[in-house]
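Much of what follows relies on a compact textual record of a protein's fold. A record is reproduced here so that you can trace the correspondence yourselves:

. . .
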Amino acid sequence: MSFSQNWELDFEHAKKQAKEEQKQILLVFSGSDWCAPCIKLDQQIWQTEAFQNHANDNLVLLRADFPKRKNNRLPKEQELKNTKLAEQYNTEGYFPLVVLMNANGKVIHKLGYKNLSPEEYITAIYED
């Protein structure tokens, strides 16, 4: 069963939405067609009802995807947006990287893939 993902792809839109809805931003750096832990995170966490319910109430979801296969290439404009986000928030080039930030883009916490239940992962997002 798949839940609709409401992933924002533009950082400025995400910040605006987070401010309007008084939510935090969850920025996810992924390699959707080559990074096995990214794919697992998507299937085991992001697509679950538990995470979707939590995100709907608390988070604006922002995805910066870096696919490698030609047929999965993003439009040039999106590639540039994602690269700019990576230069600011993922200087180490980790995949997946999950960044929790406030509505102004200030980083609160970062984490990567962890083999946890959706509920445990939700808790881990907020832990230092």
Summary: The radius of gyration is 14 Å. The mean pLDDT is 94. The longest helix spans residues 76-89. The chain is about 45% helix and 20% strand.
